[in-house]
Specification:
Layout: H1 5-18, E1 23-24, H2 34-42, E2 52-54, E3 67-72, H3 81-92, E4 96-101, H4 103-112
Parallel strand pairs: 3-4
Antiparallel strand pairs: 1-2, 2-3
Helix pairs in contact: 1-4
């Protein structure tokens, strides 16, 4: 069975927290009533913002000021035009911004960028 995007996000969140990485997940997802959606728009919630924002620069790569990850399921996840635009704008502004299919792919990316290591590597 393929994990849901929420399950993937939880696995990545646990890894990020375990490594003490400064990050957050914008509360953009989920079903909302029309009134709630209006309130969220009015206070600045933007469609397409990536799922994971890491405010620390990657230790192993010079240049990027932070990392943004749009996390999808291992299979079947699609990126929207708004998500694609956010990633492009972040890259233009000096961020490392990627789409990752699942927590494992995201963790592999973060390890290549110098953020932590899995507990057991062989």
């Amino acid at each position: 069975m393929i994990p849901t995007e929420e399950q993937e996000q939880r696995a990545l969140a646990e890894w990020l927290d375990w490594h003490g990485i400064r990050w957050f997940h914008p509360a953009n997802g989920g079903a909302r009533t029309k009134a709630e959606a209006g309130v969220f728009r009015a206070i600045g919630v933007k469609p397409g913002v990536p799922d994971v924002i890491i405010v620390d620069p990657p230790p192993a790569v010079q240049g990027p000021c932070g990392v943004a990850i749009e996390l999808k399921r291992r299979e079947g996840g699609r990126i929207s035009d708004a998500q694609r635009e956010w990633l492009a704008r972040l890259r233009y502004r000096g961020w490392w911004a990627e789409v990752c299919a699942g927590a494992d792919e995201a963790i592999e990316l973060l390890e290549r960028l110098g953020f932590g290591r899995r507990e057991a590597r062989r």
